[in-house]
Amino acid sequence: AVVSTQSGHYGRELRQVMDSFNDDFMFDPSDRRIKYVTREPLQNNVFRAINTHGFARDISVRSLCWNGKIIMDGIQRKFNFDDGVIAKFSITDEDSINAINFVD
Length: 104
Prior knowledge:
By secondary structure, this protein is α+β, with helices and mostly antiparallel strands. The protein is 14% helix and 25% strand.
């Protein structure tokens, strides 16, 4: 775990929050949708972040940034994402990750 919990009330509370958050990332291996999470979404009087996490068959994002970047956590790479650039993400059966369900 990234955060080690301590015994006591706050440790149990922290563990419950971590477990609830992590459980949200579990889904059936046969599901061919993309699981996405937007970290640090921009929210202010002009922009409002909606749908910051969930599932999708494909995703399109248009940049409104100058000198913007898209960072792909799984592959540890970042890509230029300047104003007007559109990034499209999709998944095909050939590209999907194979997973195994372990049965107790």
